[in-house]
Specification:
With 315 residues, this protein is an alpha+beta fold. The chain is built from twelve helices and seven strands. It binds 6-diazenyl-5-OXO-L-norleucine. One of its GO terms (molecular function) is glutaminase activity.
């Protein structure tokens, strides 16, 4: 059953846009949460920015607020890079290297599974292992391949925030520790610095809330970008990535999230959240005030309100 109209007719488009504007007005005054500052450059974000965008699988985008303001994608990149790894290296190789279990721990936890695999690709250890796999397959071209994949999901060429990249690299010792630990178990092979530079750069790619909505809609549309019509990922990769997003996309809040909101999603410390309702829509939110888990406070409220009002819970 279709939740949103197949194409925007005035009578059906208006309620959705009106809902987005009302939600923006409702949660805009919230001043809970803090802008991430563990990467110094991220601390410069404007805490008041707030954008909400919805893209449907028939290619329409509805948006309100600061949906054109660029910010760094951060951990949201992990979802697309996982899909890219599945398609580039083959599921068998990727699944032998990275688990699909929720970790129940913070995104930057150094703990691995009992068999020394990363828990999943949505936490740093798994994402770094993923970068390692893509580097193994493509060498120094890895970052450009990742940037192209993210751009294909968004439907446009994406830039990198070099100041954030430098800041991530300068303060990234925890990720270095994770990468070296992984290398002792063969979870990454090769040049750790090169792999980490790829990871730091991938986190520093600039997107907007609108881009996130289109990325979400591309996941929802089984790997076909509904705006450009380009096939950007296989059905297998999209379905498995959405599965891991459902169980682990919101860090140690993932259980609460899937229980209450009921959509596969991924957040980033830049303040973005992407969510997807298969066959229907993608949701992109940007608001940099984060809760203790590293999730956007207004983003969570917006997705919860949207899920409740439009009955988007998948289960
Ligand atoms: O590894 C890091 O610390 C960041 N570059 C990515 C973190 C991130 O977005 C996790 N978020 N909630």
């Amino acid at each position: 059953m279709s939740i949103l109209p197949p194409s925007p007719t005035p009578s059906l488009e208006t309620p959705l846009l009106r809902f987005l504007k009302e939600t923006h007005a409702r949660f805009g005054p919230l001043d809970e949460g803090e802008v991430a500052s563990y990467i110094p450059e991220l601390g410069k974000a404007d805490p008041d920015h707030f954008g909400i965008a919805v893209a449907t699988t028939d290619g329409h985008v509805y948006e309100t607020g600061d949906t054109g303001v660029p910010f760094t994608i951060q951990s949201i990149s992990k979802a697309i890079v996982y899909a890219l790894a599945l398609d580039t290296l083959g599921a068998e190789h990727v699944e032998a290297t990275i688990g699909v279990e929720p970790s129940g721990e913070a995104f930057n936890s150094i703990r691995l599974r009992a068999d020394n695999k990363p828990f999943n690709a949505m936490v740093n250890a798994g994402a770094i292992a993923c970068c390692g796999l893509i580097s193994e397959a493509t060498g120094e071209a890895a970052f450009e391949m990742i940037r192209a994949a993210l751009g294909a999901f968004a439907g446009r060429t994406l830039d990198v925030d070099d100041a954030v990249f430098q800041s991530e690299r300068a303060t990234g010792d925890r990720n270095r520790a994770i990468a070296y630990l992984l290398r002792t178990y063969g979870g990454v092979r090769g040049d750790v610095d090169l792999i980490l530079d790829t990871y730091f750069r991938q986190c520093s790619i600039l997107v907007t809330a609108r881009d996130l909505a289109v990325m979400g809609a591309t996941f929802a549309n089984h790997g076909v970008n509904p705006v450009t019509g380009q096939v950007v990922a296989s059905n297998y990769a999209v379905a498995r990535t959405l599965a891991v997003m459902s169980s682990s996309g919101m860090y140690d809040f993932a259980g609460e999230w899937i229980y209450r909101v009921g959509l596969p999603a991924k957040s980033g410390v830049g303040g973005g959240i992407v969510a997807a309702l298969p066959s229907q829509l993608g949701l992109g939110i940007f608001s940099p005030r984060l809760d203790a888990h590293g999730n956007s406070v207004r983003g969570i409220r917006t997705c919860a309100a949207m899920s409740e009002s439009f009955d988007l819970h998948m289960l």
